[in-house]
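Many introductory courses stop at the sequence. We go one step further.
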Amino acid sequence: MKQAGFFDVEERLARLSGLGDQLEAFSRTVDFEVFRPDLDKALAYSDGSKGGRPPFDPVLMFKILVIQTLNNLSDERTEYLINDRLSFMRFLGLGLSDRVPDAKTVWLFRERLTQAGAIEWLFNRFDATLRNAGYFPMSGQILDATLVAAPKQRNTNAEKADLRAGRIPENWQDKPAKLSHKDRHARWTLKFTKAKRQEDGTIPSTDLAIPFFGYKSHISIDRKFRLIRKWKTTDAAASDGARLREGLLDKTNMASAVWADTAYRSKANEDFMEKHGFVSRVHRKKPHLKPMPRHIQRSNAGKSVIRSRVEHVFADQKSQTGMFVRTVGIARATMRIGLANIIYNMRRFLLLERINAAA
């Protein structure tokens, strides 16, 4: 086998471009330098006057988080693939002889951003980029939530009771190593799904309830461009409807209509939307022990045509980024879900730009 030369690498990269390198499209369309002020603020690195090895460029490190989230990679796998893949190196601006951040460095970088609460700043920074490109929130907004799995915890009933009450179990308090591996914020809930048709063609009268452990991602998208405009992370057992009143509605949307499923239908929410100038298009619930009136059925069906667009967002996220929380605690889960939301908006931005260029 002959030794690879410079032009061999260039030829391979050109081949990757021809096959449709998504990271190369990111580099062409997204100006990652806009994130630098927020990254510098969150990291607060020293000026280097005391010596020591200089830190990696924060924009480079943020782009590594983009790669990691986009491909649902662990820190160790991220380090390996950056060293292995030409497309990753090109996206990061690294040559074959350049030093690559190791898994510990990636973890520490993400941890510093997490502790600083920087994910909100980074999301808002890219949202400003979208608005500057002309993608303003239009035509109303759609709300929904999806469950995000986390590693299951094996706790006793007494420990679960303490966690639900917001207490640290007594036998954990003198074991810091154990405490650091216990997720005290994720919760169990039931995930309901439609029962499958049986072999004889009949469908069971009851749906399936599947135990689920983890967190919940709440989002609000604009109807026009289907970009995520507001988001929130909670434990899996948190109510969907109550989040509507906790900053999930985008007041900058140019239309006042709000679409959501029946989980968001409550008097408190209807009063809240009316008070703040929103028009409810939330699905109505079936009357208890009574058939659903035909006019409500037709109204809900019409709303579903619009509301279903938010399901495409979750489907895209789960197929592309996996949407699995590998870390412990809600602060890190918020970081993970926030990155997934930024990357969804980046991918959506790429698509919208291609559509505009072809028009």
